[in-house]
Amino acid sequence: MARNDGEAGMTLVVKTVTRLTVGLIFLYGIYIVLNGHLSPGGGFAGGVIIALSFINLFLAFGAKKTFEIIRKDAVTALESVGAVLFLGIALLGFIDGGFFSNFLPQGELFSLVSGGAIPLSNIAICIKVGAGIFGMFLALVAFRGSEREGK
Amino acid sequence: MIHSWLPYVLCILLFCVGVYAVLSKKNLIRIILGIVIADYAVNLFLILLCWKKGGEAPILQPGAMEQVMVDPLPQALVLTSIVIGLATTAFLVAIAMRLHERYGTYDITRIRELRG
Amino acid sequence: MIELYIVMALMIAGALAAVEMRNLLSAVIAVGVVGLGLSIVFLLLKAPEIALTQLVVEIVAVIILIRATLTLEDSGEWLGSRPLGSLLGALFAALTVWVGIVAFKSLPAFGDPLMLVSQRYLADAAADTGAANIVAAIILDYRAYDTLGEATVLFTAVVGVLTVMRRKGVKDHGEK
Questions:
Q1: Class for domain B2-53+69-114, per CATH?
Q2: How distant is the Cα of A39 from the closest Cα of chain B, in angstroms?
Q3: Which of C11, C41, C64, C79 has the fewest CB atoms found within 10 Å of its own CB?
């Protein structure tokens, strides 16, 4: 792997391209999640795309710069927040009669605000999947880093 | 009619390549690759089962509500299965890296505690 | 459906390359070929939602596997196969293909699924849930328990990875 002397991350070309594209990848992930009930996509794909934008940042700029944007504790905390949100939406279904009932009004078909609780569940799943996958990636990569420091 | 079963056979061949890798290779990472390939084959089999001839993707379009569509149920199940497959792959890789740290090799014949 | 057979043959070739290639990094990239081919097959089989998810998941999987491959310098060595295991594997593969060909005669033919439950989902999803994407309506409304189970498995896997990869509390190599 080509590295600059003393500077974390990859070469200038990779950094410049990442700086230009990483925001677009993140925005695309949000778009996929919010339109999950109208078009292909949804919480799973959108969550992984958002995790990929952070992975891209991590690989190009190194750990220090990434943790300035999102702290490591925040990633694992967000994973639990996603799970609790999803369970909360499931429990709110008791308003309407049971676990996982669609308690919100359905709205108009093909409009962005439709499908009752489905967009909310999509957002919860997105937070959970994105944080979970980015957390696993961090654990696997940071392991290598700590070992090299120890030697 | 060969078209009614040939895709299934190709899919099972893919599965067999994965199982062959698990049974015959010594390198731990290569065994993980075999598990990943078998996982893909299982997902592919479920999606093959739900394809309907002349069907469209199961997404409603304005103005074309009465289309013929493919079976959406296996697609919904495979969607979760793909993400679970990624999570288990990461878990296997984590265990493999720990084993490498302890024994200094990925060779399963030299890792004593894995010997059955 | 000739394009389906071409992509599936490419996937099998990629899988064989992944199993038999000497260089481990090349093997991981061959698995990437299998996964991306799988994404194209999903697109051909009219499952765009799965194709999108498979595409992005494959990228993450290849990144994780490459990290594992590049960890230590000697990890790329060719360790060969076990002779008994190779024989058993080939036998098992032949048996599975034979059983598969016999069993597939009783499956519904390719391109003609049963769709007993799905008929109802397709007919009623728009009225029941108000979502245009029927797959989203199934995973988040009709069968949300499945998604809850998935969330549980993902949480367990993340906790497992974080536990296996922890730095504190791990014994040294020597003590047992």
A1: mainly alpha
A2: 7
A3: C79
Single-letter amino acid, residue A44: F
pLDDT at A2 > cutoff 50: no
ipTM attached to this prediction: 0.89
pLDDT tens-digit profile of A99-149?
777 778 877 777 888 878 888 999 999 999 999 999 999 888 876 544 444
Does A4 reside within a domain?
A: no
Query: Could you list the residue range(s) of the whole structural domain that residue A111 is in?
Result: 12-150
Residue in chain A closest to B87 (alpha carbons) equals: A133
Output phi, psi for B69, to 5 deg.
-125, 155
Place of tokens 């099972």: B12
User: Pick the residue with more confidence: A64 or B82?
Assistant: B82
* pLDDT tens track for A29-47: 999 999 888 888 888 999 9
